[in-house]
TrEMBL record:
It is a multi-pass membrane protein. This is Amino acid transporter transmembrane domain-containing protein. Keywords: Amino-acid transport, Membrane, Transmembrane, Transmembrane helix, Transport. One of its GO terms (biological process) is amino acid transport. It comes from Oryza meridionalis. Residues 53-448 form the Amino acid transporter transmembrane domain. Its main location: membrane. It is found in: Cell membrane.
Amino acid sequence: MKCACVRECVCISLIAYQMAASSLDAEAAAAGQQDKAGSGSYTTAATAHQIDTDSWQQVGVLLVVGFNCAYVLSFSNLMMAPLGWGWGIACLLFIGAASWYANWLLAGLHVIDGQRFIRYRDLMGFVFGRKMYYITWFLQFITLILGNMGFILLGGRALKAIHAEFSSSHSPARLQWFIAATGFVYFAFAYFVPTISAMRNWLATSAALTVAYDVALIVILIKDGKSNKQKDYNVHGTQAEKVFGAFGAIAAILVCNTSGLLPEIQSTLRKPVVSNMRRALLLQYTAGAAVYYGISVAGYWAYGAAVSEYLPGQLSGPSWATVLINATAFLQSIVSQHLFTVPIHEALDTQMQRLEEGMFSRYNLGRRLLARGLVFGANAFVTALFPFMGDFVNLFGSFVLFPLTFMFPSMVVLKIQGKDEAGRWNRIWHWSIIVASSVLSVVTTAAAVRLIVHNASVYHFFADM
């Protein structure tokens, strides 16, 4: 079932791989843009997108609203229900703190030996060579493609729920029509708002939409939780199901905390880029985490083990409240999904467009139309083919985000410091991170594959969920 999804990721990544073979050399040759950073200068690779333009407050708000996206409507089911109260809260806090540290560490690697790395793959290629450049490229593309499919699916489900409220027969059209509509809306936004920096004009609207559906959701969850006297907080299933479910939940918790594209986001910041990125991360892991963790815990408290994988479908509130939550979540996701897809767009734009011309030149508009159409057309089709929400979250959280978030930053630190400079305990610390995250990546990926196999036996192609 999900093999076709992975095949699409592989196909697109292979296209990117061929582009990368030439782009690695092209980026190195084009890296001549001199800039000042603190006490010295550094070089920055060529890109079609803006860099050095945004304040840390802007990026911080972008991270807060980006991670408080429509995915939070599924986190109670994906993160809390398989773990229960004790392990659930412990894993939320531990993985959140670990993700904060790992991203704080990665932010400090943005400039090495006079080179500023605006792409994760450039950093890994510089430190470890061409092979790691391609591996990082491939892993990031899988992350972003699968994440975008999850956004498209969530948007389609929100539109279907709205349609059901206004349908006299309460038999809305198939989910696939709403997935197609969502893909088109996402495409249009990505076309006319092509870069991360260009999102600044949409942040206030996105923040207002986030507050709207979060407040409405919390109010109804509190109401339902108080009226629900038969809540069951036990973790159900066989011992094997409990174990695999727990590891799947750990992968989902990682997804809600990190993205695997921090250097790309950091590239938009003004100097000093390291301290500004760390300020933005502080905002995400305090104010931002308080909200998406709060929604996740409140949903589990209200419904217990029976919490739905899509909270709006379980709410007992009035019809207008359900419409409000679904509508605001859909509109907010238009902005959020763009943050997590921009690195794909940047790679394609840098290769396909004329860098000496503006983003809105006639030639570049035509090339961007082709690139955005390819990405969203393929993603919307595969999402319509396999509309299973948990698969998207668990798979890219386990297989990809553990290496990108934990393994690679520690590998870079060990490599650039060397044995003499790193010190014994520092080496032990980072090797412990590498080994632990590798083990977690393997076992959580096994849990995600098990979920995929289960859904393959239950659902058919183009299932109307």
